[in-house]
Design brief:
α2 packs across α11 and α12 runs parallel beside α13. 45% of the residues lie in helices and 17% in strands. The strands form five sheets. Strands 10, 13, 14, 15, 16, 18, 19 and 20 form an eight-stranded mixed sheet that branches. A six-stranded parallel sheet has the order 8-4-3-2-1-9, sandwiched between helices. It is built from 20 helices and 20 strands. α3 links the parallel β2 and β3. The longest helix has 40 residues.
Length: 620
C-alpha cells in the first residue's frame, strides 16, 4: 500500500429496521372517540356563538323600550355615509350614518322624554361636510330649549383641531378633561412631490390632463406646485377657513380678530383653553354625567336616571315612524359612495367603491316603480371611471324620461365623475364644505424602461398593431400613441362639458370657464352655477317632500337603495362567504382527522395476524 493510499473502511452494518408499533383496537377506538368529541364540542361552541349573534341581531332589530325621561348620548368615533360602508362583518364597529344623527336630533326636539344631548368626542374621522350637517342639527336641537354638551379628553390632539373644535362650538358647553389640550391651529394643505425620486430610480411619469387645474397626477409629474394648483388650493382652504371661523365666532360669542389670535397661537394646554374661553369647564366625564343628572332630576347621584345611546334611540324612532308609513309618499334614496367603478364583485356595493352596474340598476328599478314619486341621490365620491359615471348618468336620464324627479345631495365630495353623475339632476344641494366640480380628465402611465436597465432586466416583445404597446410600462408613449391618448383626453373632456352644459342649462363656453379641472367648495359652486342650493341630506329630503305634497321629510316613506343588510343577514352572508372561500375544505379535513382512527381500526381488523378466529383460538 503506497503512502497516498487510504485504507478501506469496513462497511457499516445496516441499521435494523424499527418495527412498526402495532396499535391496539381499543387504543384506536379511544383516539377516534376523543377526536369525535372534540369536533362535536367545537361545533356546539360554534353553534352557541352563532345563536348568540342571531339573538343579538334579532334584539337589535326590535324596537327597544325607552324610559320616561333620559338624555340622548352619542360616543362619536366616526361617521359613515351609508350603512353598507361598514362591511359585512357583524362584529365590526358600526359608526352612525349622518342621516341617523341628524334625524335623531330633529326627532328628539319634540320628544318630551328627551331632556338633552351629550356627545363624547373620540378620535376618528368626520369630514367637514359631515360636521356642517351635524352642527346644523345640534343648533336646531338647542333652539327647542334643550341643552347639548360635548366632552373630550383633548380636542384636536392628532391634528384635526380646527374642524373638531368647529363641531364642538355648536354645543352649549364644551367640557375637557384636565391635562388635556386643545388645538385650533388653522388649516394647512400639504402635497408631496416625488418627481426627483422617480428620476433617480429611473421611472418616468407620462401623464396628460384636461385642463390646467386637473392636478391629480401633478405630485408625480412635477417637482413643485403649479401656479394653477396653488391658486385653486389657496382659494378652497381660504373659503373653508372663513366659513369655519365665522361659525366658531358666532357660536362662542367671540370676535373674529380675537379668534384669529387664538388660531395663530394654535395649541392650548388645559388652563390656557379655559382662560381663553375656548372651553367652558375642565373636569372628568363622571363629573359631567353627575352634572347632567342634577340638571334633569335635581339629584347628581340619581340611580334611576338613564343616558340612552343614539343607536338605541334610532331603533325606537324608526319603529315609531313606521306607523302609517304605507300612506306616505314613497321616495327612493340611492347612495353613491366611493370611487366609481363599472363592476367589482370583490368589493361589494358601497365600501370603497360605487359600482355602476348596481347603482344604475337601482335607479332604473326605482324609475320603473310607479309608487316611487322621486329619487334622491346622495353622492360622496371623488370620481372614478368616466364610462362607469356615464352608465349611472344614463340611468338618471332614463328615470327623468319616465317622469321621476331627481334631486342630488352632495356629501364630502362630488367631484370629477361624482359631478358627471350629478349634472343632470333637477336640483343639486351641497354643503359649504363639499368639494365638487373638477370637471376635467387626467390619465397616463409610469414608464419603467430606465429602471429595468438599471436592474439589468431586459424585456422582449412581439406585437401586432402599431399601438399595441401604448399602455405598456416598459416603453414611453410613441408619437402615434401620444396622439391617440390626447385624442381620448379631448373627447372625454368635450363630452363632460357637453353633459354639464345640457344638465345645468348653460352654454359650453360658460361651463368651460368654471371647469378646466378646477375643484370648488360647495359655497363657491353655488356662485358658479354648478350647485343650486346649500344644505344637507335633510334639506334635500324636505325639498322633495314639498314637491310630493308632504309637510317635511317625516311625511315621506324613504326607501334606501340598496337596502342595508340586517345584522342577521350579515351573519348568514359571512358564513356563506367563508364556506365558499374554503371553510368546506377545513371541515372536510377535520372530518378526515376524526375518521382517521376508524380507518386505522379497519386496517387492523383486515390484517390476518390481528384477527381472532376459531382456528387460532385455544379452547380449554
Amino acid at each position: 500500500m503506497s503512502e497516498t493510499e487510504t485504507p478501506e473502511k469496513p462497511p457499516k452494518s445496516p441499521k435494523p429496521k424499527k418495527k412498526k408499533k402495532k396499535r391496539s383496537l381499543l387504543g384506536v377506538l379511544g383516539t377516534a372517540l376523543k377526536r369525535t368529541c372534540t369536533l362535536i364540542g367545537a361545533l356546539v361552541l360554534f353553534s352557541a356563538f352563532m345563536g348568540a349573534m342571531a339573538t343579538t341581531a334579532i334584539m337589535e332589530s326590535s324596537a327597544p323600550t325607552l324610559p320616561d325621561q333620559f338624555v340622548l348620548s352619542l360616543p362619536l368615533k366616526g361617521v359613515t355615509e351609508y350603512e353598507g360602508n361598514t362591511g359585512y362583518y357583524p362584529l365590526a364597529e358600526k359608526y352612525p350614518t349622518v342621516r341617523e344623527i341628524v334625524d335623531a336630533l330633529d326627532y328628539a326636539r319634540t320628544d318630551n322624554r328627551v331632556k338633552g344631548f351629550v356627545t363624547v368626542m373620540k378620535s376618528g374621522g368626520v369630514n367637514l361636510a359631515q360636521i356642517q350637517e351635524i352642527r346644523a342639527a345640534v343648533h336646531r336641537f338647542r333652539e327647542s330649549g334643550k341643552f347639548a354638551y360635548i366632552y373630550a379628553v383633548s380636542y384636536g390632539d392628532m391634528g384635526r383641531g380646527l374642524g373638531t373644535y368647529y363641531l364642538a362650538s355648536a354645543f352649549d358647553e364644551i367640557w375637557m378633561q384636565p391635562v388635556g389640550m386643545l388645538s385650533v391651529a388653522g388649516i394647512k394643505a400639504e402635497v408631496p412631490f416625488v418627481r426627483d425620486v422617480l428620476n433617480k430610480i429611473g421611472v418616468e411619469p407620462q401623464f396628460f390632463a384636461r385642463k390646467e387645474y386637473k392636478n391629480v397626477f401633478e405630485s408625480f409629474s412635477k417637482t413643485g406646485m403649479s401656479d394653477e394648483s396653488r391658486e385653486m388650493t389657496s382659494s378652497m382652504i381660504g373659503d373653508m377657513a372663513l366659513h369655519i371661523m365665522d361659525g366658531i365666532s358666532k357660536d362662542r360669542a367671540m370676535s373674529l380678530p380675537v379668534l384669529q389670535t387664538h388660531v395663530d397661537k394654535g395649541i392650548f394646554v388645559d388652563r390656557e383653553a379655559l382662560e381663553a374661553k375656548l372651553v367652558d369647564r375642565l373636569d372628568y366625564l363622571d363629573v359631567m354625567e353627575s352634572h347632567v343628572k342634577k340638571i334633569v332630576t335635581g339629584d347628581p347621584e340619581n340611580p334611576d336616571f338613564k343616558f340612552v345611546k343614539m343607536k338605541r334611540y334610532v331603533r325606537a324612532m324608526e319603529a315609531g315612524k313606521s306607523e302609517g308609513v304605507a300612506e306616505k309618499p314613497l321616495v327612493a334614496l340611492v347612495y353613491i359612495a366611493g370611487t366609481i367603478v363599472m363592476s367589482d364583485s370583490g368589493s361589494g356595493y358601497g365600501g370603497n367603491h360605487a359600482v355602476a352596474d348596481d347603482i344604475a340598476s337601482d335607479i332604473l328599478g326605482a324609475a320603473n316603480d310607479e309608487d316611487i314619486r322621486a329619487i334622491v341621490l346622495r353622492i360622496d365620491s371623488p370620481g372614478g371611471s368616466p364610462t362607469a359615471s356615464e352608465a349611472i348618468r344614463r340611468a338618471i336620464v332614463r328615470a327623468k324620461e319616465k317622469g321621476k324627479t331627481i334631486i342630488v345631495s352632495m356629501g364630502g365630495a362630488a367631484a370629477s365623475g361624482g359631478y358627471w353623475i350629478a349634472a343632470d339632476a333637477d336640483y343639486i344641494f351641497a354643503l359649504p364644505g363639499t368639494l365638487t366640480g373638477s370637471i376635467g380628465v387626467a390619465g397616463g402611465k409610469f414608464v419603467m424602461q430606465e429602471l429595468w436597465n438599471k436592474l439589468g432586466v431586459n424585456w422582449e416583445s412581439v406585437q401586432v398593431g402599431k399601438n399595441a404597446g401604448v399602455w405598456s410600462l416598459n416603453e414611453p408613449f410613441s408619437e402615434a400613441g401620444t396622439e391617440r391618448v390626447n385624442a381620448m383626453m379631448d373627447s372625454i373632456y368635450a363630452a363632460f362639458i357637453h353633459r354639464v352644459a345640457e344638465g345645468r342649462h348653460m352654454t359650453p363656453v360658460q361651463v368651460d370657464e368654471v371647469a378646466r379641472g378646477r375643484v370648488w367648495t360647495g359655497r363657491q359652486a353655488v356662485g358658479k352655477g354648478l350647485v343650486d342650493g346649500l344644505g344637507g341630506l335633510d334639506m334635500a329630503l324636505d325639498y322633495v317632500a314639498g314637491l310630493v305634497g308632504a309637510v317635511n321629510r317625516d311625511g315621506l316613506n324613504v326607501v334606501i337603495l340598496p337596502k342595508p343588510q340586517t345584522p342577521f343577514e350579515k351573519i348568514v352572508e359571512l358564513v356563506e362567504t367563508q364556506v365558499s372561500m374554503g371553510a368546506a375544505l377545513n371541515i372536510q379535513a377535520a372530518l378526515f382527522r376524526v375518521m382517521e382512527p376508524f380507518a386505522d381500526a379497519a386496517n387492523i381488523l383486515s390484517q390476518k395476524e390481528n384477527v381472532l378466529t376459531l382456528e387460532t383460538l385455544d379452547i380449554h
